[in-house]
């Protein structure tokens, strides 16, 4: 090529949640049975949607309107439905013009960071969710800026660190909150959220709240929506159908803009997001038509409650199994369907291994372990020895050493077997 093609920021695009699949598939081709604990797809883990949801979809597919374009901002009746839901929370009142649909929140996240000035930064939590941290870092041609979630304090944010970073870095224009959190499964207490809003207000930055998992809480927890605590601070709530229904294949997400007229720069940014979607014409019509029919159905809340109760039971079982390993820092989860499990300082070293009988698989794992972080080394040996596929925590923009699991396996016997095997493998690895 006559000139360099890639931007400097392109190297920041990393997504180990999917990257580990490439390695697992190499071992699968060598005869290893894989247990996928890397990605949050309830359907892949045998979650069965009730027939009434499938009936809604079948009826919509028969309607010609579901095959056409919709307005660029999204189906009007759907935006009106969402406005009613949000305004009932009693926070900033929004109109359908304050809602914008995307083809999944991955699309919305990418567009959001892409439109920011290259010098403007959004600080997010660490461990970070890779879609946010990679897109934010890529737009700035720099590493992500993060505030720490503390595993020794229920994964709650270090608010002093957050304020100091916002205070002393004038390039920070936004604070990202993921609530419930991915990858830790933590649900933010209301008092922490209010303090984060006060930091945003004090330093005149906006707030982005990723609320993809906002309906997924259990073990007595309650997740607060941004609209409930944002007050008069400009903010964006990111929501979607993928986890809530669950319908990950819908690729249907939306943003709600709060207090956009409070600041001219923020208003211009929201308008630019609208215009960016207009250049694509619109987002997919069918899931937008389905949204009010599913979420507005009298059977939906019971459906979601049952799913949450099952996730809560699985979290308790995993808690019981893995809490037996003293080398781990383990926090119970209260939201989303993940848990981040951390090795205590000094537990891991570069001499540890697990026995692998298949010589070809063993050779692959040993090759992958050259020069990697210690938690990657554990994850690769775990994969080769047991077929259990998890994600290293250091890949979530963190200095911590550990791994993320999912809480999605519907078969309780299989769940018990997988996590008992995981527990035993950890004990063998660190002995």
Word description of this protein:
Strands 2-9-8-7-6-3-4-5 form an eight-stranded mixed β-sheet, with helices on both faces. Helix 2 runs antiparallel to helix 10 and helix 12 (359-368) runs antiparallel to helix 13 (374-386). It has 431 residues and is of the alpha/beta class. It has two domains: 8-47 and 301-430, Aspartate Aminotransferase, domain 1, CATH 3.90.1150.10; 51-295, Type I PLP-dependent aspartate aminotransferase-like (Major domain) (Aspartate Aminotransferase, domain 2). The chain is built from 14 helices and 14 strands. Helices cover 41% and strands 14% of the residues. It is globular, with a radius of gyration of 22 Å.
Task: Please write out the topology.
Blueprint: H1 16-28, E1 35-36, H2 51-61, H3 76-87, E2 99-102, H4 105-115, E3 121-126, H5 130-140, E4 146-150, E5 156-157, H6 159-168, E6 172-178, H7 190-203, E7 206-210, H8 226-229, E8 235-240, E9 253-258, H9 264-279, H10 285-295, H11 300-322, E10 328-329, E11 338-343, H12 359-368, H13 374-386, E12 388-389, E13 391-392, E14 402-406, H14 412-430
Would you summarize the structure shown here?
Helices cover 41% and strands 14% of the residues. By secondary structure, the chain is α/β, with parallel strands linked by helices.
What descriptors fit this protein?
431 residues; alpha/beta; Aspartate Aminotransferase, domain 1; Aspartate Aminotransferase, domain 2; 2 domains; four-stranded antiparallel sheet
CATH superfamily of the largest domain: Type I PLP-dependent aspartate aminotransferase-like (Major domain)
**Strand order of the main beta sheet, please?**
2-9-8-7-6-3-4-5
Number of strands: 14
How many independent structural domains? 2
Distance between the termini: 52 Å
**What's the total helix number?**
14
What would the principal axes of the Cα set say about the shape?
Answer: globular
What integer is the average pLDDT?
Answer: 94
Radius of gyration: 22 Å
User: Any idea of the CATH class of the largest domain?
Assistant: Alpha Beta
Profile the largest sheet: 8 strands, mixed
For this structure, the CATH topology of the largest domain is Aspartate Aminotransferase, domain 2
Q: Which strand-content bin applies to the residues?
A: 5-15%
What level of helicity do the residues show? Answer: 40-55%
**pLDDT < 50 runs, ≥5 residues:** none
CATH architecture of the largest domain: 3-Layer(aba) Sandwich
Derived structural class: alpha/beta
What sequence of helices (H) and strands (E) makes up the elements? HEHHEHEHEEHEHEHEEHHHEEHHEEEH
